[in-house]
From TrEMBL:
Residues 175-283 form the DUF4253 domain. This is Uncharacterized protein DUF4253. It comes from Kitasatospora cineracea. It comes from the Bacteria.
Length: 283
């Protein structure tokens, strides 16, 4: 048995040999570090940049291997430590399970919190409330509810592979990560990613929303950074009304996208129409 085969068997709950071991370059297992010591591994990480085409092969092999591939980015360009991945800055202790949650309820809660308090959790003063009103128009009366599922399904897996090629072409520093999970949404919880910790400490809630978007918009999680996500989208909104509803979901999920980006939902929403990629980042 090769070292790679041995490592992948440690990741899989079944302990069975992995169907993709022969495809992989040199790499190693990574686990969360507690008091300087690494505990149970949750991720296989390539030692070097992801070879072109490998993500697509691993993605196609996922049904047999049980290992979901992620393109992993470091904290910053040129980060030799490759944080948080190679340094084990992961946390599997604080997460619950994605299927515990109603994603629509999570988004409503995220919206209500993001539109009623400031960054310190204090009630908004009148000037802040007026500014917020401009940001969240046309939904001044409150949470509009989640957008309806897209009528056009597209090809979610094909869209994911296309985005992976595009992301790799733009960033040769990306590495391959493998997580024992049913898909990208579950992989975030399984590996203990904690990118949005300043906004949400239980990553299973993030996974629950991503699972819902997989169903409604044909999204797939392709790339994960220190506090960033890149999703392919097979069924994006096609008209303004739906795009505004989706923009409200994005604000509820990741308020920094709007409040530190476009500034208003009406400025943000047009970029979602027909968009085949959604990007999120948390400050």
């Amino acid at each position: 048995m090769t070292d790679v085969e041995h490592d992948l068997r440690r990741l899989l709950p079944s302990g069975e040999p992995s169907a993709v071991a022969g495809l992989l370059p040199a790499g190693r297992l990574v686990g969360p570090r507690h008091h300087g010591k690494e505990v149970t591994p949750v991720l296989w990480l390539s030692d070097g940049p992801a070879p072109l085409g490998l993500w697509e092969e691993l993605h196609r092999g996922h049904p047999r291997s049980g290992l979901w591939p992620l393109l992993l980015a470091p904290l910053r360009v040129g980060d030799e430590e490759f944080r948080p991945w190679a340094t084990g800055e992961l946390d599997t202790d604080s997460a619950s399970e994605p299927d515990w949650y109603d994603p629509a309820a999570l988004l409503r809660t995220g919206w209500e919190y993001s539109t009623t308090v400031d960054s310190e959790g204090d009630p908004l003063d009148p000037e802040e409330a007026a500014e917020l009103g401009r940001s969240v128009a046309p939904f001044l009366t409150g949470w509009p509810g989640t957008a309806p599922a897209a009528g056009y399904a597209g090809d979610p897996d094909g869209a994911a592979r296309a985005l992976a090629r595009e992301l790799l072409a733009g960033n040769p520093q990306l590495r391959i990560g493998l997580v024992a999970a049913g898909g990208g949404a579950e992989a975030l919880t399984a590996c203990g990613w904690s990118g949005p910790v300043n906004h949400e400490g239980d990553i299973a809630k993030v996974s629950a929303v991503l699972l819902d978007w997989e169903r409604r918009y044909g999204t797939r999680l392709v790339q994960v950074g220190f506090a960033e996500l890149e999703l392919s989208v097979a069924a994006p909104p096609r008209e303004e009304e739906t795009a505004l509803r989706v923009a409200a979901e994005h604000l509820a999920f990741c308020p920094d996208n709007i409040f530190q980006g476009a500034g208003t939902l009406t400025a943000y929403a047009p970029g979602l129409i027909g968009a085949e990629q959604w990007s999120f980042w948390w400050d």
